[in-house]
Amino acid sequence: MTSCAVEGGCPSDYVAVSISVLSFILLLARLIFPFVVHKVPCSKGSGFWIPLIKVFASFNLLLSIVMSLNFLKFKRTQWWQSCYLWAVWFEGPLGFGLLLSCRITQAFHLYCIFVKRRLPPIRSYILLPLILLPWIAWAAFIHVRMPLNYHCHMGTGWVIPVVSLHALYVAPLVGFTGAVWHIEFRFNEVRDLWLGILLSASSIGVWIAAYIVNEIHDDNSWLQVASRFLLLVTSSIVVLAFFSTSISQPLLSQINLRRRNTREFQTMGQALGIPDSGLLSQSEWSPIVYPNAPLDKLLLNKRFRQSFMAFADSCLAGESVHFFDEVHELSKIPEDDPVRRIYMARHIIEKYIVAGAAMEVNISHRSRQEILTTPNLARTGLFHNALNELMQLMKTNLSKDYWSSMYFIKFREDASVTYGHELEEMTGWNFSPRLSSVHATDDPFTN
């Protein structure tokens, strides 16, 4: 026992390594499963790269514990086996610190969007390094002072600062999550955050106890073997718990993976339960239209809107019509339901407004910035100016060609009722006749 406690390779060590390998395989499977099985398209921005960073940090954390605590029997003869490389940098800033920083960033996004009702004031790729800076500074300080011995232990005097640093990162995560606890979320963001925190807190409690024992009782073989076993096993639990899904902008693909029934949501409106979202009933009437009829009024009819949208898509210019359709869906959500309005507004911004979005619309820089810097994502007139500009573009570039297209001919053949029927009402919009100033090279704030 004494030999393997110092040199590594005890039976319990191999059991712990096997558990960590299994946990990392499960983590990778959870990351890859949506793309392989459900054919989910890769999203852009923090919704895609933050999960990747969490996987990277999880791998670093588990591997650093294996390398620094002698789980495998090897002698430290190469520079890459250095205690400072694994026990300080990979286990600290690149492991546990990076993992906690990703979760704090996600919790901060939830807080900004649903409590402050505005987009986060700082981009994720700037916020994440800022959160990580204290851990990087601490790792650099330890590297300069060099307190580690041959077994990668710091000694009693360094235990309290190290444990305090861990608590410093757990505290804001709990704080931001507690601040959004009162929000009645449509999906499971807070539940997942709390689940991750509770499981991780329990594991971290055991982890800290094992860490203290491992650092202080360097001369006790049994305690060394047992404590490092607990360190690796609890770390494996932490990385799985911290990877539980929690996002500030629930993509439809991730919503589908959470469903408990066989119904698939094709639009965000359907996922949010907006009445008649994405549906076209057989009784939906088709008005008799004329080229001189107001386009903004005709688009309020779902059958005409879908015909016009199909034509615009065939011209590779359907973004404006899709934007109109989803803003129209947003207008159906009552003003006294801010949470669903924020979900829908956030979805529209990510899909149509931010630079490089999947269906980025061509609006002026002023209108784009007005949306991206809004103090209230739930307000009714959020997309008012952008919609006015796009209506003018549709009237100028699409409507003239539509009247002579096969799409209009097919729609006219299907028309069965007259203008005596009421059009769908779209409240809150007053289309302006003014033309917009459009700049295609805008570079607005994005997350």
UniProtKB/TrEMBL annotation:
Keywords: Membrane, Transmembrane, Transmembrane helix. Residues 294-412 form the RGS domain. It comes from the Eukaryota. The chain crosses the membrane at residues 15-36, 48-72, 84-104, 125-146, 158-181, 193-213, 225-252. InterPro entries: RGS, RGS_sf, RGS_subdomain_2. Pfam families: RGS (PF00615). SUPFAM superfamilies: Regulator of G-protein signaling, RGS (SSF48097). This is Regulator of G-protein signaling 1. It comes from Quillaja saponaria (Soap bark tree).
